[in-house]
Write a structure and sequence with these properties.
Elements: E1 6-11, E2 16-24, E3 27-34, E4 48-54, E5 60-65, H1 69-74, H2 81-87, H3 99-107, H4 109-125, H5 135-159
Antiparallel strand pairs: 1-2, 1-4, 2-3, 4-5
Helix pairs in contact: 2-5, 3-4, 4-5
């Protein structure tokens, strides 16, 4: 039996792998595969590019870090600095602290982490579907929230 590894993007918190299926009318089309974790399986601690295999029901059963140069070259990048201004523009930073910092102060870190996870999921689910928006901007917005989740989680783990 030959191994059939596919490429996608694991979405931490959603337990899904996002799979690029091509484009339709100039917009990227993605599908989402649920992850079924076998005992002892490798599980990413953050959203990342992965290679995966799935069962006959379309559930992801095996996953590993994506190492394909072609995949890593073609998948949207978090460090696309030319688009970051659309993700976290200056008017978001006009007060004494950024809005996300105010949210933490008012609602707490746990509530903000849940908000960030849901926003990252939302941006990935609708990537490229909003009129006038391109896929890369939506993916960058999701990646921005995912980087905040990682940053705050690591900070929380360090402070314990």
């Amino acid at each position: 039996m030959s191994e059939n590894w596919r490429q996608g993007y694991y979405l931490v918190g959603s337990e899904q792998v996002q799979v690029y299926c091509g484009s339709h009318n100039g917009k990227a089309v993605y599908d989402y595969r649920p992850v079924s974790w076998p005992d002892g399986a490798w599980k990413p601690k953050e959203s990342c590019a992965v290679e995966f295999m799935e069962d006959h029901k379309g559930r992801v059963t095996h996953m590993r870090n994506a190492v394909s140069k072609e995949f890593l070259t073609n998948w949207p990048k978090a460090d696309d600095l030319a688009r970051l201004d659309q993700v976290n523009p200056e008017h978001y930073k006009s007060g004494e602290m950024e809005v996300w910092q105010m949210m933490i102060k008012v609602y707490g870190v746990e509530a903000y982490l849940n908000f960030a996870k849901l926003n990252a999921f939302k941006y990935r689910m609708r990537a490229g579907l909003k009129p006038g928006a391109d896929v890369q901007t939506d993916i960058n917005k999701a990646l921005w929230y995912e980087s905040k989740i990682k940053e705050l989680t690591e900070k929380s783990n360090t402070n314990q």
